């Protein structure tokens, strides 16, 4: 009895082992079949799907901005930004805490030697995409060259000045210094404004205001050049620190320094009014320029912050004075 029983148990174990092997083999075969089938499907989809290289569209070059040429190679400036933060040097920026907001813009535009280090970043930001510099500010910029002429930010520098200072025949003092600076710091992107473009800026001011800046013994401010350049390269301009044209006429207007980085410097409104009223010597027409900027803000995508304001709407039966005659000179979008 024991022998047949043992024989039966052995047969049963063999059958169970065979069944287990069959299940394992069948599962492996089905899994391999599914994997192979999935692989074939993926390969088929990849053949049908265009490769990344085939669908990649070449990014268009930024448009050429006429009238701005490289100091060394004389190549024209190519630049375009969807949103720009145009940061003034006004004391109104102090304590505003707009730095992070400014740095979120695609391009950040600054003027002259306005700093971003030394604790100012919280209010004015850290980035600089474009810096517009007057010939009279060149020495101050050079004194702060370790901060302002830092090539790591890939900043574009545009210098403006009288044609006599920008001559290329060896007699242009500013031009010669800029070439030397760019030779010492070859990574800097340094551009100058051509004399033809300078004449266009003068003509634009005359058309918009009815005033010849030379007859009135005035110089266009760096703010005028910066705003006009921004209109050429930006789709939207957010201006920080610029007051409304009539701000200084308000009896209770807030007193701030002319420059945020010179807290003991002259009062901003006192500076604006003295220049606006000046008849002897050379002056800037700051308030007149701001009236033009307010008018442009009704046509272009320009917005003012810190302080926040918008130009008042015109009466329904009133049109922008000078719009028809000045339109061809206002920078056009390309």
From TrEMBL:
GO terms for biological process: ganglioside biosynthetic process; oligosaccharide metabolic process. GO terms for cellular component: Golgi membrane. Its main location: Golgi. InterPro entries: Glyco_trans_29, GT29-like_sf. It comes from the Eukaryota. It is a single-pass type II membrane protein. The keyword Transmembrane applies. Gene3D superfamilies: Glycosyl transferase family 29. Residues 1-27 form the signal peptide. Keywords: Disulfide bond, Glycoprotein, Glycosyltransferase, Golgi apparatus, Lipid metabolism, Membrane, Sialic acid, Signal, Signal-anchor, Transferase, Transmembrane, Transmembrane helix. It catalyses: a ganglioside GM1b (d18:1(4E)) + CMP-N-acetyl-beta-neuraminate = a ganglioside GD1alpha (d18:1(4E)) + CMP + H(+); N-acetyl-alpha-neuraminosyl-(2->3)-beta-D-galactosyl-(1->3)-N-acetyl-beta-D-glucosaminyl-(1->3)-beta-D-galactosyl-(1->4)-beta-D-glucosyl-(1<->1')-N-acyl-sphing-4-enine + CMP-N-acetyl-beta-neuraminate = N-acetyl-alpha-neuraminosyl-(2->3)-beta-D-galactosyl-(1->3)-[N-acetyl-alpha-neuraminosyl-(2->6)]-N-acetyl-beta-D-glucosaminyl-(1->3)-beta-D-galactosyl-(1->4)-beta-D-glucosyl-(1<->1')-N-acyl-sphing-4-enine + CMP + H(+). It is found in: Golgi apparatus membrane. One of its GO terms (molecular function) is alpha-N-acetylgalactosaminide alpha-2,6-sialyltransferase activity. Predominantly catalyzes the biosynthesis of ganglioside GD1alpha from GM1b in the brain, by transferring the sialyl group (N-acetyl-alpha-neuraminyl or NeuAc) from CMP-NeuAc to the GalNAc residue on the NeuAc-alpha-2,3-Gal-beta-1,3-GalNAc sequence of GM1b. GD1alpha is a critical molecule in the communication and interaction between neuronal cells and their supportive cells, particularly in brain tissues, and functions as an adhesion molecule in the process of metastasis. Belongs to the glycosyltransferase 29 family. This is Alpha-N-acetylgalactosaminide alpha-2,6-sialyltransferase 5. It comes from Perca fluviatilis.
């Amino acid at each position: 009895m024991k022998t047949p029983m043992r024989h039966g148990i052995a047969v049963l174990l063999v059958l169970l082992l065979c069944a287990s092997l069959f299940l394992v083999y069948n599962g492996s075969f089905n899994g391999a079949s599914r994997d192979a089938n999935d692989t074939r499907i993926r390969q088929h989809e990849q053949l049908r799907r265009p490769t990344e290289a085939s669908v990649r569209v070449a990014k268009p070059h930024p448009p050429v901005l006429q009238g701005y040429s490289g100091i060394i190679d004389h190549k024209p400036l190519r630049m375009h930004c969807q949103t720009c933060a145009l940061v003034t040097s006004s004391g109104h920026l102090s304590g505003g805490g707009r730095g992070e907001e400014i740095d979120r813009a695609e391009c950040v535009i600054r003027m002259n030697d306005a700093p971003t280090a030394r604790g100012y970043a919280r209010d004015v930001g850290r980035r600089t995409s474009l810096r517009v510099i007057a010939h009279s500010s060149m020495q101050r910029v050079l004194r702060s060259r370790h901060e302002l002429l830092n090539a790591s930010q890939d900043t574009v520098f545009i210098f403006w000045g009288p044609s006599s200072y920008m001559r290329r025949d060896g007699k242009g003092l500013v031009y010669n210094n800029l070439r030397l600076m760019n030779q010492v710091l070859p990574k800097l992107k340094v551009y100058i404004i051509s004399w033809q473009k300078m004449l266009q800026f003068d003509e634009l001011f005359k058309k918009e205001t009815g005033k010849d800046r030379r007859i009135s013994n005035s110089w266009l401010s760096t703010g005028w050049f910066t705003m006009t350049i921004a209109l050429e390269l930006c789709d939207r301009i957010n201006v920080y620190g610029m007051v409304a044209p009539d701000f200084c006429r308000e009896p209770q207007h807030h007193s701030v320094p002319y420059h945020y980085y010179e807290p003991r410097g002259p009062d901003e409104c006192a500076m604006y009014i003295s220049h606006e009223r000046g008849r002897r010597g050379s002056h800037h027409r700051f308030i007149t320029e701001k009236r033009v900027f307010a008018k442009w803000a009704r046509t272009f995508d320009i917005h003012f912050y810190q302080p926040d304001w918008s130009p008042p709407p015109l009466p329904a039966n009133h049109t922008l004075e000078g719009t028809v005659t000045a339109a061809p000179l206002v920078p056009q979008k390309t």
